[in-house]
Oxidoreductase (Paenibacillus agaridevorans), 334 residues
Amino acid sequence: MTATKLKWGVLGCAGIAKRAVIPGVQASKWNEVTAIASRDADKASRTAEEHGIGQAYSSYEELLADPSIDVVYIPLPNHLHREWTIRAAEAGKHILCEKPLALTAKEAEEMVEACAKAGVELSEAFMYRWNPRYDKLREIIASGEIGELRGIRSAFTFNNAKDSANVRYRKDWGGGSIYDVGCYPINAARLLLGKEPEAATVQAIFSQEHDDVDMMASGLLEFEGGVSLTFDCGMWAAFRNPLEILGTEGIIEVPSAYVTPQPGSGDFYVNAGGERRLVEVEHVNAYTAQADALYRAVKGEEPLRYDAFDAVRNMKVIDACLQSARERARVTIN
């Protein structure tokens, strides 16, 4: 252990925290998880023991009061992101908050303002962006190898509909497929195109069995120049997460765009000039890379590549998608 490591505390024992984020942070040279909190004291103790975490707290407030904690990770249900981000900021903690950052763009703005006022870093946990593949994708697009961009297609679906008690199926908690997985194609299109969409049109299946959340959605985001993202997302369909980037002279195919757990799963294909070539991508633990980026920002070595205002802009698009799906209408994005 080195004295320079940032000490992390985790609010809650969510599956994503136990399965991916905690191990990712623990694998970092510059970060370590030293505390975890749950309103269920036994759950906190069990999780701490399973992951080699030294301190378990029976309340979130206790963890925030711990002066040794530098960074707080928030994997709580979506409706709790705003409250606990603001409370963590007021406690002087830097924050990694799960995606989507908030329930609305207005909430996200309030979170960003609170963190700015407190002088702490705020990062949204879109770990996929830290896979080096996305730098390669942007390089290929910029090189002109596939010509002028004409559109992006992407999807993220899985089937968990039988788990009726899941927090994803609580409307007032920010449940639904657009919040949970649709946010990925939306975020990726904005990242790859380097601009914001002008309008959204979305059709969705709202299920009364699942508290009227959107269980499946298909959408169109309009960008300037006639370029668009067509996407679908769902929690009641077979698993897939592809991405296709269409140009005038070629196509980039990414079989697994957002989930890359194994070496080789981050590779993709470029179809151009009459040839199809495999682009191999170095396997990186994106959760570790995400934590290391926050470390560098906290230490003043370099600013976050994706600042907190990017999360606000992403939420504006999500707001428009949800409004369009409910109203069955095209929604302009300001």
